[in-house]
Design a protein that fits this description.
single chain; about 325 residues; alpha/beta; Rossmann fold; seven-stranded mixed β-sheet; about 15% strand
Length: about 325
């Protein structure tokens, strides 16, 4: 029978969080809210959040210190790739952890670099207790101890309205390129071609449009204001101030549901319930494109068991879809 772990006398102990190098959507809805709930229920001498650059905004309301790591690659997201982080980032993470000397560490997502095992062993020697990313168990060398009491996730809304950032709609024109599993890459196929974006924008003359996303993994189109690479704090204000965000399924599209911004989204897998319910804690309005099932997806290998939908809807269909969303009163 497993022992139950009780958190006692934490007020003189340090807690570190992350770093999370996984997908933004999972960080938003399967991590940061759980961490916030846990921190809200326990008093620590300090709470240090370690995260990717541009994502500090997710932890500012409860962390006493934030350390960011400048890493842009999307390939680290896929745990099956077993990719290593650059050596300089690994060394900085090790140095920061040894300086913090946390009594507890909540693990982040996609711990896929080889140096993590050595770091964990070094920290265990100084007494660090490891908490899993679901924030409900403590890992020891010889056992796993469930929490006596699990804190519920605590979601908050992000962003402040700013009249200077009021747009008819915001676009996340994702251009994510990941190294695929053999024979298939559902993430890259989800991208919409830049020429289609260009044609779409040409149909919305006179509209005020902005683009967000990372500089390396998203497009910007002529006639749009370029706010890529600005980080989540700026994106939150932009989304809070604008009428709508448009694009294929992505982390920024999910983030909009925490920023009071309606979403017009399409996908090549069935993510409708996630957008409408599971990852929409404040019930934000979502327009989900009724995509066509691919009855004969010649690109799909036998190991991929999920139903796939049209990877690249037509410009005309997406234009009508967005037009209808814009015409509906808020």
């Amino acid at each position: 029978m497993s022992k139950i772990f009780r958190f006692e006398d934490t007020k003189d102990k340090a807690l570190s969080i992350g770093p999370w190098f996984g997908e933004l959507g999972y960080e938003l809805f399967d991590y940061q809210a759980k961490v916030r709930g846990f921190v809200s229920d326990h008093a620590f001498s300090k709470v240090v959040a370690l995260c990717r650059s541009g994502r500090a905004h997710l932890y500012e309301d409860f962390a006493t210190e934030i350390i960011e790591y400048d890493y842009a690659s999307e390939n680290c997201f896929n745990a099956h790739l077993k990719k290593d982080l650059p050596k300089d980032i690994i060394e900085k993470i090790h140095k920061d952890f040894m300086k913090i000397k946390p009594h507890y560490n909540i693990e982040g997502g996609s711990w896929v670099w080889n140096g993590y095992k050595l770091l964990r062993e070094a920290l265990e020697e100084q007494g660090t207790h490891y908490i899993n990313r679901d924030v409900n168990r403590v890992y020891a060398k010889d056992a796993i101890y469930p929490f006596e009491s699990v804190s519920p996730p605590r979601f908050i809304e992000f962003g402040n309205e700013n009249q200077d950032l009021k747009y008819d709609f915001v676009i996340h024109a994702r251009n994510v390129v990941k190294e695929p599993k053999p024979g298939y890459n559902i993430d890259t196929l989800r991208n919409w071609e830049q020429e289609k974006w260009d044609e779409l924008i040409s149909k919305f003359k006179g509209f005020k449009i902005a683009c967000i996303g990372s500089l390396d993994y998203s497009f910007v189109m002529e006639g749009c204001d370029d706010f890529r690479g600005k980080g989540l704090s700026f994106a939150a204000d932009l989304l809070r101030s604008s009428k709508l965000i448009v694009g294929p399924s992505s982390g920024p599209m999910h983030f909009a549901s925490l920023c009071g911004c309606r979403q017009a989204v399409w996908d090549n897998v069935d993510s409708k319930s996630r957008y409408l319910h599971a990852w929409n804690p404040f019930g934000e309005k979502v327009y989900y494109y009724d995509n066509k099932i691919l009855e004969n997806d010649t690109l799909k290998p036998s190991w991929f068991k999920w139903t796939t939908y049209e990877h690249s809807p037509s410009v005309e269909n997406i234009y009508k879809f967005i037009e209808a969303a814009l015409e509906e009163k808020e």
